[in-house]
Amino acid sequence: MSDRQNTRTIVDIYGQQYVIVGPESNSHIRLVATMVDDKMREISSKNPSLDTNKLAVLTAVNAVNDYLNIKDRLERLENELKRVKD
């Protein structure tokens, strides 16, 4: 368990307010919320008929896809670095 205190941050995502509680800084939480809001608005602009639930799921799918792509790239770079060191 960490000694870090949780922070409580109120953010606005796609017109709704949320209270986010966690060990990250307020600025980090706000950055994450802004990125989610931006992605929701981007997807909504391409598919204006989506309801909020479907929009949220598509935003999550996009975020996880981005995460997996970055994770895969990091693993490939770590393997390459290990190979160069050996």
TrEMBL record:
Gene Ontology CC entries for this record: cell division site; cell septum; cytosol
Function: Activator of cell division through the inhibition of FtsZ GTPase activity, therefore promoting FtsZ assembly into bundles of protofilaments necessary for the formation of the division Z ring. It is recruited early at mid-cell but it is not essential for cell division.
Quaternary organization: Homodimer. Interacts with FtsZ.
Keywords, sorted A to Z: Cell cycle, Cell division, Cytoplasm, Septation
Subcellular locations according to the entry: Cytoplasm
Protein's recorded name: Cell division protein ZapA
Domain of life: Bacteria
SUPFAM superfamilies on file: Cell division protein ZapA-like
Database matches in NCBIfam families: PRK14126.1
Database matches in Pfam families: ZapA
Main location, first listed in the record: cytoplasm
GO biological process: division septum assembly; FtsZ-dependent cytokinesis; septin ring assembly
InterPro entries per UniProt: Bac_CellDiv_Activator, Cell_div_ZapA-like, Cell_div_ZapA-like_sf
